[in-house]
Design brief:
The chain is α+β, with helices and mostly antiparallel strands and 511 residues long. Helix content is 33%, strand content 22%. The protein is built from 18 helices and 16 strands. The relative contact order is 0.07. Bound molecules: S-adenosyl-L-homocysteine. InterPro entries: 3'-RNA_MeTfrase_Hen1_bac, Hen1, Hen1_N, Hen1_N_sf, Methyltransf_12, SAM-dependent_MTases_sf.
Length: 511
Amino acid sequence: MFLTISTTGSAARPATDLGYLLHKHPGKAQVFATSYGDAHVFYPEAGEERCTAALLLEVDPPALVRRGRGKGRGGAPDAALAQYVNDRPYAASSLLAVALRTVFASALRGECRTLPERAAAPLPLRVEVPALPARGGPALVARLFEPLGWQVAAEPVPLDDHFPEWGDSRYVRLVLEGELRLSDALRHLYVLLPVLDDAKHYWVSAEEVDKLLRFGDGWLAGHPEQQLISRRYLARRRSLTREADERLELVRLADADDVEVEEIDNAVEPEQPDGSQERPAPLAVQRREAILAGLRAAGATRVLDLGCGQGQLLAALLKEPRFTEIVGVDVSVRALEMAARRLHLDRMGERQSSRLTLLQGSLAYTDKRLKGYDAAVLSEVVEHLDPPRLPALEYAVFGAARPRTVIVTTPNVEYNVRWETLPAGHRRHADHRFEWTRREFRDWARAVADRYGYAVEFQPVGPDDPEVGPPTQLALFTGGTGGTGGTGGTGTTTDTGTDTGTHEKKKEDAA
Ligand code: SAH
């Protein structure tokens, strides 16, 4: 099993820096004992302009068998033989990945005390694996590596050079080229070599999920083939795959707030329906104002901001003394950290900080900490959940936490045609799982209100276009018990009659 990693350089940045980054001296050939045999590291070339490190794993088949890696193949004599006579010693595979981890542990973590800035920056890299078992062939190889920024050449290796009519083997000769950080490159290989091999020779334990997430950090959650990667990496163990998918889903959510939602909504200035030159307040500001007005009118003092993101609403709530207890909840630790920074939580006086709590949690699970509040806000949050998970959120918020008042805002998809720079059919944010029409939102909100014994009314936020409605739609739910009562009762639905152009509340009894 053989793999090379090359880079190029110049006098100012010699290619031989690769030796520092890999923590392996280019002038030496070294041997490391791994669980499956000896791993040799050496440099076929080591110059200022080009430097190549090679990893050769000399698999020790008896070691493979001793470690029980041939298990699961049954006890038939030829199966026993297959444990010794197989492609393992020649083909790159999961064993090579294990060797990578053993031999290049620090480089995988991106650690380099001598040249930290080189480790942190992309390098021109070329990785070659002459014999890579690839279930799914060159096409899958490309689908796995290309989204990560690699240029991929994967040539099928013929079964026999002398008999082209025999066709191709299941091996490819893989060449990857790209400008990547070395640690990223190694982490891609660590995960994807076994995925392509698809024949793990070790027992997949629950810890493998942790490994997958650790080595997949920063690239796996957003990978278009994430599910295939998880499934194969975890040797198709269903419970593990499900766990990985769920945890990666949380990572995706956390990553989604890399982009500020309000920046997106406001990046595309709506055309003023009345043609006026005056610029309206940004939509995010109008949304916050509408929410604050709703909370004031409800007389709420103890408020939950569910899916608080980076804390813009929390900041506004803190400015008003009437809000005595403010709780921000988000699934994303990163968002909460940014909220804490934005609010200067570390420098906040005790009086202020005693009013504010930040909690990490998923709204798809009931949470005792959320019971007993006056009001909860879900501002631009529901559309970030996959539709099958919405009922869990509905139950957690309206059924279990049961704040007296709930304010939900979400985009009105009908309005998207008015954002000139939003290409047709596109959602406003890459992480939006759906965007509702006014009708869909109302149907959803009324059904939730009925189910959990709330009344609901609707308000437009932003310019209320006569044809397509407002950019943001808001639902105000009232009648919760603050977490003390049951969930019975029928809801009353009210409407603000946006189609008549007036926003005054036009109560209609649903009963
Ligand atoms: N409320 C803020 C942020 C909206 S972005 C605003 O109006 O600007 C959506 C936020 O919901 C993100 O911060 C995301 O991390 C959070 N979120 C998405 N799904 C969640 C879930 N299941 N549980 C908790 N928070 C969630």
